[in-house]
Amino acid sequence: MSAQSGGVGIDGPLAPLISVRELSIRLTDDSPVVDSVSLTIPRGVILGLAGESGSGKTSLAVALLNHARRGARITEGVVEFEGTELGSLPDNELRAIRGSRISYVPQDPAAALNPALRIGLQLEELFEEHRAPKEARNYDQLIRDVLEEVRLPLDAGFRRRYPHQLSGGQLQRICLAMAFLLNPEVVVLDEPTTGLDVTTQAHILRTIKAMCNNRHVAALYVTHDLAALRGIADRVAVMYAGRIVEFGPVEVLLSNPRHPYTRRLIEATPDIKVARRLPTIEGTPPRPSDTFPGCRFRPRCDLAVARCEVGQPPASEVGKHHFSYCFRADDVGEVQPVTPQSRAVLHLASEEPGGGESILVLRGITARHGNHVVVHDASLDLQLGESVALVGESGSGKTTLSRVIVGLHNAYEGEVVWNGVTLAKATSKRTKEQLRGIQYVFQSPYTALNPRRSVAEILEFPIRLFWGLDRKAAAQEAAEALDRVRLTRRTLGAYPPQLSGGERQRVAIARALVCRPSVLICDEVTSALDVSVQASIVNLLHDLRERESLSLVFVTHNLALVRSMCERTVVLCEGIVVESGATSSVLDTPASDYARKLVADTPTLLRGFDVLPRPS
Known about the structure:
Elements: E1 16-27, E2 32-42, E3 46-50, H1 57-63, E4 72-81, E5 84-85, H2 91-97, E6 102-105, H3 109-112, H4 119-130, H5 139-149, H6 156-159, H7 168-180, E7 186-190, H8 198-215, E8 218-222, H9 226-232, E9 235-240, E10 243-249, H10 250-255, H11 260-267, E11 316-319, E12 322-324, E13 358-369, E14 372-383, E15 387-391, H12 398-406, E16 412-418, E17 421-422, H13 432-437, E18 438-441, H14 455-467, H15 471-484, H16 501-513, E19 519-523, H17 531-548, E20 551-555, H18 559-565, E21 568-573, E22 576-582, H19 583-588, H20 593-600
Parallel strand pairs: 3-8, 3-9, 6-7, 7-8, 15-20, 15-21, 18-19, 19-20
Antiparallel strand pairs: 1-2, 1-4, 4-5, 9-10, 10-12, 11-12, 13-14, 13-16, 16-17, 21-22
Helix pairs in contact: 5-7, 14-15, 15-16
């Protein structure tokens, strides 16, 4: 590897398939979101790209297609595919490459698919766009093959569905199928498993790994899940404030980081074996418009010294193919594993039900979508100040059960009792106090917020509705809510499309918290968050539980996070509760085969998960 200013590369037996040289991407006000980044990816190699929300990961990822999101532009540097500079190609040639030879998997599948077209038609359109008619005659079999690879139904009825009729995990798998359908040579994956359960995630990552190995596909895998990187990536680049700060082989970088930022990200990653209070990175990442001399991580770094204020640290080779952009790379130190004997272990409240005051009770809930039963006779008892996890694969009924509680799904039999009162099935028939007391944070930060309302308007509306405050007082409450979820107050003037996925999710969480609920239903609320922000949100929820006896229903695929978040865990499989009990018992000694599989498919920083052997 040859280090360049702000850049990384990968040595390998094959020549680079795609290269980025000294790339800079700027906003309309000339603020840099990507600053002089270089990287190369050969065939058959998966490069993981990690970093906090807003670090420039997605901007760099879409630049591999010679594209920039709205409000940004590529100002310097080049992107080359097989030695051809993409920026020099005519529009028709560039369009022909995008989607067929270089494909892209977006973070939000709901926004990527046309809601007015059936799934099958959207798959067929790829052939019409990129293949000659004679080459597309067997497209039906090719579609069946790729649907089977991503574990989706092969029947014609499934292909006649519209996107809104699929679960979040199914939508993501459709996007993966579309990306690999035409056998591309480069695949850019932007958080492709964010909405997937651990079993489906493990299958998808194994599929991606196998396809990249077998077809010699070069891949850029963007993620905030460092444990997933352990299982799929060959090399990892860590990005902060528009620059690469560390690069190296995945096993070396995750066990022996040589940049303080990388180490802090690793320390903030939850572990399925140990319940602990997750450490956070103090402060917030700089915005592109923030300018100051020296290392951009310096204001948040506990190793910063005087020379860190002078200029950008050069690349230091700290091991074979391992580079760190830090003046104090030798002082970072290895990450020490957390064990049950560590002082960082978190002692949750009693994990055994009973003895406490029940704030929410579900009795015999059987919920339907049309004539199809999706939840079968489910019951739940949530005590004051307690956190209960709902876990299971995508489509297991977790979200339906959650929406029954909040009144967004009224096709059910059974009873929902809050504070001793049986709630009406529909929100329209519930009192204002009942609506305020049970708040819901939705899974997708992209569809949960009105894109035509500023963050200030989004937060102030429930404050004024439920508390009757005047505009000035509501504005102050909104500003303090942003402080709690680690967003700067400048965010108040922004609109959702101007925010990253992680920033949008924090706004959605803040909107729920300003209502001061007694029960908070969190539907995959951390799936779009990087590990450092996830840690701060989890710690915030812990503090609220201690101070205000906030009770949580925590819907998640992240079993490692459940360990540090919830006293009890309920496991759903095809709408049936197959296991329920203390979290430690469910995760350490699961009684059902289904729960054992979920635990086995959860990646960790130590082992990732079982995948094909990496190329030497």
